[in-house]
Amino acid sequence: MSHFVDRLTFFRAKREKYSEGHGITTNESRAWEDAYRKRWAADKIVRSTHGVNCTGSCSWKIYVKGGIVTWETQQTDYPRTRPDLPNHEPRGCPRGASYSWYLYSGTRVKYPLVRARMIRHWREARASMSPVAAWRAIAEDPQKRHDWVSRRGRGGFVRVSWDEINELIAAANAYTIREYGPDRVVGFSPIPAMSMISYAAGSRYLSLLGSVCLSFYDWYCDLPPASPQTWGEQTDVPESADWYNAGFLLVWGSNVPMTRAPDAHFYAEVRYRGAKSAVIAPDYNEAAKFSDIWLHPKQGTDAALALAFGHVALREFYLDRQSEYFTDYARKYSDFPLLVTLTDREGQLVPDRMLRAADLPGNLGEENNPDWKAIGFDETTGDLVAPLGSSGHRWGDAGKWNLEQKDGKGRDIRLRMTLADHHDAIAPVAFPYFGGSAAHDWTATDHERILMRNIPVREIATADGGTIKVATVFDLYCANYGLDRGFGGANVATDYDDDVPFTPAWAEKVTGVKREAIIQIAREFAQNAETTKGRSMVILGAGLNHWYHMDMSYRGIIQLLVMCGCIGKSGGGWAHYVGQEKLRPQTGWLPLAFALDWTRPPRQMNGTSFFYAHTDQWRYESMQVSELLSPTAPEGDWSGAMIDYNVRAERMGWLPSAPQLLQNPLDVGAALAESGGNPGEAVASKLKSGELTFANADPDDPRNWPRNMFFWRSNVLGASGKGHEYFLKHFVGSLHGVIGTDDAEGLVRPQEVAWHDEAPVGKLDLMVNIDFRMSTTSLYSDIVLPTATWYEKHDLNTTDMHPFIHPLTAAVDPSWEARSDWNIFRGIAKAFSEVAPEVLGIEQDVVLTPIQHDSPGEIAQPYAPQDWGRGECDPIPGKTMPSVALVERNYPEVFARFTSLGPALEKLGNGSKGLNWDTAHEVELLGKLNGTVLDGTTKGRPKIDADIDACETILMLAPETNGEVAVKAWQALSKSTGREHAHLAEGKEEEKIRFRDVVSQPRKIISSPTWSGIESESVCYNAGWTNVHELIPWRTLTGRQQLYQDHHWMRAFGEAFVTWKPPIDTRSIAAALGKLPNGNKEIQLNFLTPHQKWGIHSTYTENLIMLSLNRGGPAVWISEDDAREAGIVDNDWIEAFNVNGALTARAIVSQRIMPGSCIMYHAQEKLVNTVGSEMTGQRGGIHNSVTRINMKPTHMIGGYVQLAYGFNYYGTVGANRDEIVILRKMSKVNWFDKAADETGTSDASIGTTRREAAE
């Protein structure tokens, strides 16, 4: 019967009761239930994931009905693990489960948007001019340029067509390249592993232009410099499944249940298996709830705690008794037995550099690279020997770069770890101590700045006919930890209660952790490692790595792991998880991403140094380099401001620079091509004469400004932009909240950088953001392009946390006028090729490249560096200055090259990390798979027209996804090591993972020599496994785990050995205290920004589903004690500020926060529920409004094996945890809901509104 008739007869339907009237049956319609049934019905279910840099890399089912994504649930079909290991699923979190909200939300960018004032000027000019001429007319008109620059961040967007906006962008790029140079066009996008093709789209376009790609891993401060320093590896860590193999888990500064939710089940499961868990965190966090013991040191004192742990382990397992496992491991795999020279400085012996074969008569028989071969004593013969594995063996001694216990002549050796029983003398040696003073409320101790400690030394003959004193790293190491070994002298501890630096008693004063707990954890951790042969693991993350002296904390922990034999052992080691940095098919991705198939080298720049210079934060530098210097520093001129050190590093070829030269590199290239000769020699000569100058010497000269900026897959202004307000003022040119001035007392004027009394405001001509949502960066951009969401495009995704590669897939077509990143940059490239011939043709481009890690150039500077800019040597490309290349750019062919695979792979091969292999066969297969170009200048080349073509290119070229390539890669490594490694890819030769394979199911990658672990049924991925089990050296000076850092600058700043350095004094408070009182008490707190529960960086923070689960806007956590002192109760509006800027938020008062600190979880944007600041008279800022970039000189080192530069490998990092804020309760809450005045502020009487960018 019809539904209509059913409704008419409803009241006449017979009803029957049962169960004594407690139940009733009726004949009424139940059609209403269909709504619920259909809610869970779907037309199709598609696999995808979230490219959000959360490290989860979780595969999801995307449900589509009627062409609309309705919801998502977790996939559960990951390849199974072995029987004794839990499977990887379930993987996911509430944030990922809410992502489909974004597709149809009000925050979605639906159409290309442009600032109205810009497009008005463009259209007027374009009506009568060609594209490049039109852009020139408006960009060179100061009034017109100011008209749109000054309106950034203040609304005024209008919708435009793709064709029009692509032409505008292309014209701006072409003009900038012709007028200033391709290195004035810059792009920033982070973490390619989360969506490899989307990253590669922009970087390929920029690289074909010769433009600059900025690094991100260092800028995000996710890069732990201690990893390159120790292992010569950016970051390589165990997969989360290997946690299950651990016997002791030390979770340090990582909130696993909250920020590693998809992997946390392994943490729970191994505890059921009997593993012990200790959590170290200053706040009582979610991980602490699940631990066996919780240690809560004073925030920022982790290095002190790690040193005390090491003190206990050394005392009990190396000195009181010798653990056979530990000493054998350290002898084979660390630099403990190698020799360090001792030099006299003002009457005191000081550890100098490692002893080299070149120091000894006849180079000890080593003919190849004797400057780079470390030396030790053979325990059997007592002779000095050069063990295999040093960097000197890697470059030139084919077949000798391995960790076999032999010397260069093939003789078996056993290295002596200590000279305790074989010394010529016991001598006092000087060690620096930095803990005698401390900022804020950190604890200083009463110890001398130089600690003299006795060690056994030998005196040996040198090549110059003299003698030199030497000691083993181990003997110096024990002295550094303050251990009494019976050699007499002061500043050593006989027991744990002695008040000597690095004992548990000393650490108790500094950290607040009871010495008994320190001794217990250190002893149990080491005892477990000894019993299980290395199955003690430390999980660590941003809680440690975001401090200025993060490498001291990390090196302290790493050295504990090395002395306990945990690195390279399943269930043990160093598990650093911050960003989704592991791009597993890296070698296949690199040629696509940086257009290496067409031109080499690409222009790459470390992000931190770039933003420090071009947001003018160097002008506000308050830290004196002399504060960081060691009292035992080598003699020399150590003067200068922080930016001076960066300039010297760039000049000496240590760091990259962007822009590179004051002059347009195309003009320089044209002149060099016309004159002929060697480009490197010509550039070096012109630099020396002053005819050419580095742009870094005057970053505020308009000729040296970055002019065009692309942001995609990121939110710099809403998440990672340390010094947010300086970005707004100097880089963007908008209203800002900078409270301090660049002429304040105590600021350091540079020696080598030009000073302009009036700093620039608004350096960028054009700022383009590509996003699916209206983020903070979008609000300040000139152009916002709508990109596809993660459910609307094809891409690839990998992570550190599991061994699988899987896809992003287009479950639906991009909504409205959105396009995938690949198609966006494809469209811009097409427009550029049409526009460029107006001013650009085939051009010669001079490219300067820093001395690269994993290349023969890394052994360029073996001893104390020489600066040609100071007249200490001549500029020699690739030796004492950057390398120089003359690169041909074919600008009219950018689109043709963007969409096809170039010939360089057949000619030059492919590879990474110092390896290279022939790849012609893979290029041929790609031509058959993707098809070839049918006409034009790229006729016959394999096509990369669509995003799936790009995916197939990566999968075909990478050893991790092509077994045939994996075998070739292992064979390439065997040529260096002299050992057979191809067995690690046995059985995989015929395996080729295709894109549609990973769409069907995630695929486990293939073992590759570009990583230090293996993929195996019997072994979980664990970093360092191949070094220990295959005897492949670490990529360091010694080839071993490098605990002693002997570079000249490392010794100068007191970091040759790990030591304790308190958090720095950022001097951000004094000038802001009492500046604009509001009647409420002001307190000073250390400002911490850990990752949050309700968002992944800034994504999800305005997602309505997530907002409904938390307070729904910015919040700062403070302790009950601090709240009581400031008169604050829970949910009060508070303001936090310093000279850098101000933010507003709700207060969350909690006893889980340590007094003296406050927590504002990372990347809460100012888009939702943010009130006005009483200090600035503008809407409150974000977490980075109160921060400023603080760079560290030791991160600028280059040209020195493991310390040589690599993109995202080593360089200055963006630390921010040392910052102090003034926090107070707000007296007046202003929502700025009135009409704005001409400054963009709703009430100009409030605060100290900044007016530089106002009209």
UniProtKB/TrEMBL annotation:
It catalyses: nitrate + a quinol = a quinone + nitrite + H2O. The keyword Iron applies. CDD domains: MopB_CT_Nitrate-R-NarG-like, MopB_Nitrate-R-NarG-like. Transmembrane segments: none annotated. Signal peptide: none annotated. One of its GO terms (molecular function) is 4 iron, 4 sulfur cluster binding. Its cofactor is [4Fe-4S] cluster; Mo-bis(molybdopterin guanine dinucleotide). It is found in: Cell membrane. It comes from the Bacteria. Its EC number is 1.7.5.1. One of its GO terms (cellular component) is nitrate reductase complex. It is an enzyme of class 1 (oxidoreductase). Residues 43-107 form the 4Fe-4S Mo/W bis-MGD-type domain. The keyword Metal-binding applies. GO terms for biological process: cellular respiration; nitrate assimilation. SUPFAM superfamilies: ADC-like, Formate dehydrogenase/DMSO reductase, domains 1-3. Keywords: 4Fe-4S, Cell membrane, Electron transport, Iron, Iron-sulfur, Membrane, Metal-binding, Molybdenum, Nitrate assimilation, Oxidoreductase, Transport. It is a peripheral membrane protein. Belongs to the prokaryotic molybdopterin-containing oxidoreductase family. This is nitrate reductase (quinone).
